[in-house]
Amino acid sequence: MDEREYQQLADAALAKIEARLETADVDFEIVAGGILRIDLDDGSQIIVNKQSAAQEIWVAARSGGFHYRWNGGAWLDTRGGEELHAAIARLAPP
C-alpha cells in the first residue's frame, strides 16, 4: 500500500475510535502530532498513534504495547491477531 492509502485508512480508523469514545462518554484528547490519548477512570492512559514508516497503528496501554497492521480488511495486531477496534473496546470499556 502506498503512503496516501495508509494515511486514509489510518485516519479513518482513528476517527472511528474517536466516535466510539464520544458515544461511550470516555475522556480522550488529540495531542501533538495527532496522537490520541484516552484517559481512563483508574487514572491510566491509552495512547494510540500512527507509525507511518512501519504503516502501522500503535497502541500503548498499561497491559503492554500493540502494533496493528492493515491486512486488506481490518487493522490486526501483529502478534495476537486481535482487531484494533475490539482491542480498544476491551482496553477502554465504556
Core attributes:
single chain; 94 residues; alpha+beta; Metal Transport, Frataxin, Chain A; 6-stranded antiparallel β-sheet; 2 helices; 35% strand; globular
Helicity range: 25-40%
Radius of gyration: 13 Å
Low-confidence parts, pLDDT < 50 over ≥5 residues? none
Strand content: 35-45%
| Biggest sheet overview | 6 strands, antiparallel
DSSP summary: helix tally: 2
Strand order of the largest sheet: 1-2-3-4-5-6
CATH topology label: Metal Transport, Frataxin, Chain A
In N-to-C order, the SSE pattern is HEEEEEEH
* The top level CATH class name: Alpha Beta
Give me the CATH architecture, please. 2-Layer Sandwich
Return the structural class: alpha+beta
The named CATH superfamily: Frataxin/CyaY
Average per-residue pLDDT, rounded, comes to 95
Counting structural domains, the number is 1
Overall morphology: globular
Give structural notes.
There is one protein chain. It is built from 2 helices and 6 strands; from the N terminus they run αββββββα. Strands 1-2-3-4-5-6 form a 6-stranded antiparallel β-sheet, with helices on one face. The chain has 94 residues and is an alpha+beta fold. The protein has one domain: Frataxin/CyaY (Metal Transport, Frataxin, Chain A), CATH 3.30.920.
Summarize the structure.
This protein is of the alpha+beta class.
Please describe the topology of this protein.
Layout: H1 3-23, E1 27-31, E2 35-39, E3 45-51, E4 56-61, E5 64-70, E6 75-77, H2 84-91
Antiparallel strand pairs: 1-2, 2-3, 3-4, 4-5, 5-6
